[in-house]
Amino acid sequence: MKPGRTLHPDEIGALVALVGQGRLSEAEHRARALLAVHPAAGMLWKILGVALMRQGKDPLAALRRTAELLPLDAEAHGNLGLALHDREQWAEALVSLSRALGIRPNDEQALVGAANAMRALGRARESVALYQRALRSNPRLPEAHNDLGNAFLELGQSEEAVACYRLALEIQPDDALIHCNLGNALRQLGLLDQAIASFRHALDLNPRSVEALNHFGNLLRDQGMLRECASLYRRAIELEPARADGHCNLGNALLEARRIDEAIASYSRAVAVDPRSALAHVSLATALRLQARGADAESSCRAALAIDPGYAEALSLLGELCADQGRFREAEELFRRAIAADPHFPFGFCGIAAHRKMTAADTAWLEGARSVLARRPPLRHEINLHFALGKYFDDVERYDEAFGHFRQAHELAKRYGAKYDADKLARRVDRLISIFDEPFVSTSAARGLPSELPVFIIGMPRSGTSLAEQILASHPAVFGAGEVVFWDTAFGAQESADLAGGARRLSSIAGDYLERLRILSGGAARVVDKMLTNFLYAGIIHAALPGARIIHMRRHPVDTCLSIYFQSFFNMAAYANDLAHLADYYAQYVRITDHWRSVLPTARFLEVPYEELIQDQEGWTRRMVDFVGLPWDPKCLDFHETERTVITASKWQVRQKIHGRSAGRWRHYEKHLGPLRSFLEDAPR
Fold first, then answer.
1. CATH number, position 130
2. CB 452 within 8 A of CB 548
3. pLDDT tens-place string over residues 444-455
4. Of 115, 142, 158, which marks where a domain is finished?
5. pTM for the full model?
């Protein structure tokens, strides 16, 4: 073949025919041979690029050269854009696809590809118009309907997303991924039965669909079915072990089951398989925070921000870490940075409201929170925004509006399907009372360990337990460990070992627990554990650790219940979603704590009325310090100045001086009390 020979159109035609016949390798070699003679022939580069692309080889160099040589060829720019799209090089892909659309505005592939690139670049709202243009050109594009649904879902427009997915399924009814996406949108709307049906259909069509396994698992996790969702997540991980989101999902289930060490292991695996996953780093930080490993959690947050400096979740969690340490101004600045990075990020607004008293001057906050809510965000976000707005209106003394938002938050939370089982709790309390009677407690205590290291603070949520811990932890000899996950599992192990003959195992249980405290405490003389559900386990605690002190915080029942009702516990406390259930739960709490009062020795069980503590701070503080066997230290009166990590919802309140504003708070909501009035007004105060 002689240099300089003119390229004949028949040679181009022959190459096109080879590609059309699927003889791609032959077309590739022939095109390369011709390019040796005609290196500036754009059509040859174009054919070579297509042949390489269809063989799964790297076509980028050929496609780039084609676009340079054929700047007015829409297909050349489109091919390059789609190849870049497939490699997730979104910014470059969008440039090339936009050039293609400038030449051929209604190219369906280019429109969908450009829209996908926009979504990947965080421009979901702009992508909607491109998907819609593609569908006006061809309404029978299932991928465009599906991807438009994905865009609407990202924008929090779940109903619009459902409509798109249904249209896609009319065209392509056996697509497992579209059924999975439909299930996810239905889940966001709280239509759980329909969502379950969609996920099951997706898995029937494709049992190896990792997307369906993960999303179905998320739905089951929302319903509190932690064992079932963990099974689905593990199947997804077996199929694709290199996906960080699968490990994160399993970590989430383990975290909600309070299996924090295992959750950290899952999140660490997510980081290992994808060190560039900001989600994995933030998830790990969340679990580390719950272990009071604030420095490690902050390091993980900063790793996420190094990957994505505008990652609102990381900024918000960093704000929570600052708030845990009492650095509320820094926390608010981080929450505001999260909102600036994503003006529709609800947790930035929630964080601001949670960590200070809101005032009528917070009009910008109110407008922003209402604006996010008006966009109908995903259900979880909508719930938290209602709680934040309830807190705002309570702070500014607009009580009817406050209660309306709290009630709406709980009504929405019920859609997740977590149920309160009153009969189950009553049976459990019956069993605890029958097992841990006075003879068992007194005789088994002789087999426990007499350590005075542990101090347990028990009570209902929002009854002053965090305040009591903060007071005691202000003593130089005391370490506040927060909520130590242990006794629920310990009771289960003891019960399965036949409690009548299992008392000999108590010293082993006690030894395990004391070792955990020693690791946490750094040599303190006393360690405070304020895990709230320990009010169920005071009997086994005393039997295993007869030298431990148990402080029971009591608060006016209606104030306690309303304060619980005004706090977001999400799926961790289903009883809180309904005032009647809340009243029933409180009645069972009274039953079991009345029993402990009757069987535990007074030298080891002290009741502290919250209202009396705030009226006589020094008197009750001295009594608590004396009760735990320590000399008086005046630092306990200045508890609000103590620098320590506090993770509970009361982290702001425990850093304020004692005041009586929360006592009798229920009177502001008297007309809304409903079952709380009939169930609780005669309960012990």
1. 1.25.40.10
2. yes
3. 767 789 999 999
4. 158
5. 0.76
